[in-house]
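Hey, I was hoping to borrow your eyes for a little while. A protein chain has come my way and I'm curious about its shape. Take your time with it, there's no hurry, and the full record follows here:
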Amino acid sequence: MNKRALKKALKQSIPILCSYVFISMAYGMLMAENGYPWYVALLASVIVYTGAFQFVLVSLLAGGASLGLVAVTALLMNSRQTFYSLSFVSDFRAMGRRMPYMVYTMTDESFAVNCSLECDDPDRQDVMFYVAILCRIYWLLGTVLGAVVGQSLPFDLTGIDFCMTALFVILLMDQWAHPERRKPALVGGGIAMICLLIFGSGSFMLPALLITSAVLVILNRWEVKQA
């Protein structure tokens, strides 16, 4: 174990800890409110591990949705995470047997942390791996806590799922606070607005992600050549 990398990962993952525990608790509470025991909520988090879709999954399960509908919805909602991994293909390949785990555990939050790591850091890949593990632990812990607490709460939990939207807003604010990290936000936001106007609110996400990923990859390669 690389203790130095683990310390760095702990420091980098503290903001994710503060958000993941409460968001996953909200998810666990919603599962409990819909009559699912804590171990079902935990099992869903172990298998699925995608915060935004897990909140949607609660309503799909409660409404008796078919397996096909659940699968298609999951694919469309989480296609963006496929593109996240494209930015770290070389890093993940160099990590050997850890690569499948890194691809599986890539989330919006771990992606943001990975982007903030220095390219010349000798512990870069180990830090990425430890951050992925820590984030997983945070989410599973919060899920169990929320499910257990949710079974005993006497009041309505309507609106608690807004915490996921709040998390994305906080991530954007954190990225905007660093001028050198604003380019991805500006590119993604601009392309998303254009795709929204062209494809409409129900179909803009996938083309926006494809175009944004392509543009960022091209810009990154151009900057590397210029350096």
